[in-house]
């Protein structure tokens, strides 16, 4: 079968791999679309410390059930359209015991610690397969990347009384914008790319700020009457936005961190203490986040194609990844169509 492999940093190619062998309790999936994630870009650039090469990337999945193994519930049938929860969980660590499976100490994500879904076929334990015939193949491929932003909003305990500022309007930030609006919050989207800010407005952002062209603090002062946003979600992974999140969040506010900054971040502990702010991480997503995104995609009037920058064939994937690596700020989502 065809598979897309990151052979080493800066090198991606189309390869032939053996068909996966299906074990008891597993389902064989035929891939329809797989999205490139920011973690795949980091792997391609040689900046992902969790990856060993060669690696098949991909964990944003749209597929159909090709074959069903033994010991799989009868509710799964051949031909069903599905997506996949791409994380493992051990069930025994402190996170799992609290049912926070997304933060499992021993998690292995498809395409990161183990080979992913950029191939014609994969096998998956039935417990990780989510079926929904009402969603299109493209929508199913957008579920997982949107769940990460949904989960961050959940961690931030966002309500309709909050003003939520979101740093970074990529795919994860887009999910956070959608979820915060569904919670009834006032949403401020911040980025340095006007095209992404235009999409943020289509997703429901009440205010957009280009922090390259506008003075962030002054704009927030006007929007919040000098109080600052009650919740800040950092989805840019930049030391500058990490520091701004601490500086701009309201007193007694919450800062939720999704992005990985490339360098260590120093900030004044005085603000942390004086504001009595909560600073928390947000990793992956839980099953309820998947349910919420799937419900949103079924009920929303949004044309999900606004979230997709390019759709390519497997043969075009290496060039698409090279293009993304050279202009990362211009790409929201690349889908590979199998």
UniProtKB/TrEMBL annotation:
Gene Ontology molecular function, alphabetical: oxidoreductase activity
Pfam families tied to this protein: ADH_N (PF08240), ADH_zinc_N (PF00107)
Alcohol dehydrogenase-like N-terminal domain boundaries: 24-131
Keyword Acetylation annotated: no
Annotated Alcohol dehydrogenase-like C-terminal domain residues: 172-297
UniProt cross-references to SUPFAM superfamilies, sorted A to Z: GroES-like, NAD(P)-binding Rossmann-fold domains
Entries under InterPro entries matching the protein: ADH-like_C, ADH-like_N, GroES-like_sf, NAD(P)-bd_dom_sf, Zn_alcohol_dh
Keywords: Oxidoreductase
Protein name in the entry: Threonine dehydrogenase-like Zn-dependent dehydrogenase
């Amino acid at each position: 079968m065809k598979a897309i492999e990151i052979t080493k940093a800066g090198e991606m190619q189309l390869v032939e791999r053996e068909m996966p062998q299906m074990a008891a309790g597993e389902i064989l999936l035929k891939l329809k679309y797989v999205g490139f994630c920011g973690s795949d870009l980091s792997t391609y650039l040689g900046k992902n410390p969790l990856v060993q090469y060669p690696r098949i990337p991909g964990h944003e999945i749209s597929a159909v059930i090709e074959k069903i193994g033994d010991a799989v519930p009868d509710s799964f049938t051949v031909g069903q359209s599905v997506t996949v929860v791409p994380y493992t969980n051990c069930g025994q660590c402190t996170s799992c015991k609290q049912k926070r499976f997304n933060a499992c100490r021993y998690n292995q994500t498809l395409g990161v610690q183990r080979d992913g879904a950029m191939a014609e076929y994969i096998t998956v334990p039935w417990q990780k397969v989510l079926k929904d015939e009402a969603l299109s193949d493209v929508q199913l491929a957008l579920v997982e990347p949107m769940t990460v932003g949904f989960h961050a909003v959940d961690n931030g305990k966002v309500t309709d009384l909050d003003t939520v500022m979101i740093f970074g309007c990529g795919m994860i930030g887009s999910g956070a914008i959608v979820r915060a609006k569904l919670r009834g919050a006032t949403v401020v989207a911040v980025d340095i790319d006007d095209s992404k800010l235009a999409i943020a407005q289509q997703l429901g952002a009440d205010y957009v700020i280009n922090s390259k062209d506008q003075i962030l603090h002054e704009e927030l002062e006007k929007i919040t009457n000098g109080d600052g946003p009650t919740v800040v979600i950092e989805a840019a992974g930049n030391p500058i936005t990490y520091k701004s999140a601490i500086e701009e969040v309201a007193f007694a506010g919450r800062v939720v961190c999704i992005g990985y900054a490339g360098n260590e971040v120093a900030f004044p502990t005085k603000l942390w203490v004086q504001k009595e702010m909560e600073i928390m991480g947000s990793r992956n997503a839980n099953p309820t986040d998947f349910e919420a995104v799937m419900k949103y995609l079924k009920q929303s009037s949004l044309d999900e194609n606004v979230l997709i920058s390019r759709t390519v064939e497997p043969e075009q994937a290496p060039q698409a990844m090279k293009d993304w690596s050279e202009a990362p700020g211009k790409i929201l989502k690349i889908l590979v169509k199998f």
